[in-house]
Amino acid sequence: MQASTRSLPPEALARISRLELQARTIVEGFLSGLHRSPYFGQSVEFVQHREYVPGDDFRRIDWKVLSKTDKVYIKLFEEETNLRSTLLVDVSESMQYGSGHQTKCDYACVLAGCLSYLLLRQQDSVGLTTFDQDVRSVVPPRSNRHQLQTVLAALHTEKPQAKTDVELILRKVADDQSKKGMIILISDLLVDRPSLYRGLKLLRHRGHDVMLFHVLDDAELDFEFSGTTKFEGLEALPELICDPRSLRDGYLAALREYLDEVRHHCAAHKIDYQTVRTSAKLDAVLAHYLHHRIGMHQSVRG
């Protein structure tokens, strides 16, 4: 166990172990079910080998290495070893909501773990920033074998009591990331919209490729409450007691307007956006991510 996790209490270590097992199980199952390789891009300059995983293209197996070592490796090229990814995970108070067996924060952490594991399997460099009103933890991008546990340990945080200052966070990331790379934001986006747009625009202006996974609970998306209900405010919002049926149409209309606005803003600035339900299967989310990466590299090569 790394030094970064030794100081954590036993219940935190158990949670990290479960998260690692979830990430590995989901990603391995996802990769084994693919009919085509998730590893993409090829430049003319060979750099190194990587151990074969289910889904890799057989045409890229190094048969000479196989004949000498009886181990299966594929060839990696320069373009495939340069991706530097940073995961930005919102752990603010609003992310603690969940109508089912897990909160939005739980889902976001598993998603971040899956993406980290997948990226590291591809020999990519992975970093992490968790945040609420300010930065909670930072893991600099690395591609070594200990990085997954370091990332998972940083995802463990005490329950926050702060709002999300998303523009501040995105500006800090933009200032800290001197090298262009991929920034993956995982959040419920219950934030000030102009601040969000300014922060995203800054990342794109600095040359980063940006992905946004907008995580929302099913109850937030469907609003299927009935009977007199007390809604407890998060992030300093007051309580509200009402009949939700009288609010449902107006709520859903406002939500659709908001989601459309965010989606159109992202499209206008070439930011890849996906609304993600907490009930969504993570293999579908990973498929969306890989589709984006393939499209991104094809456009670069074109």
How do the strands and helices of this protein lay out in sequence?
Layout: H1 3-6, H2 10-32, E1 46-51, H3 63-69, E2 73-77, E3 84-90, H4 104-121, E4 125-131, E5 135-142, H5 147-154, H6 166-176, E6 182-187, H7 193-205, E7 209-216, H8 218-222, E8 229-231, E9 240-242, H9 248-268, E10 272-277, H10 282-301
Parallel strand pairs: 3-4, 3-6, 6-7, 7-10
Antiparallel strand pairs: 1-2, 4-5, 8-9
Helix pairs in contact: 2-4, 2-5, 4-5, 6-7
Walkthrough of the structure:
With about 300 residues, the chain is α/β, with parallel strands linked by helices. The chain has 2 domains: about 5-30 and about 80-300, Rossmann fold; about 35-80, no CATH class. Helix content is about 45%, strand content about 20%. The chain has helices at about 5, 10-30, 65-70, 105-120, 145-155, 165-175, 195-205, 220, 250-270, 280-300; strands at about 45-50, 75, 85-90, 125-130, 135-140, 180-185, 210-215, 230, 240, 270-275. The chain has a 6-stranded mixed sheet with strand order 5-4-3-6-7-10, sandwiched between helices. Strands 1-2 form a two-stranded antiparallel ribbon. Strands 8-9 form a two-stranded antiparallel sheet. Strand 4 and strand 5 form a beta hairpin. The N and C termini lie far apart (about 45 Å).
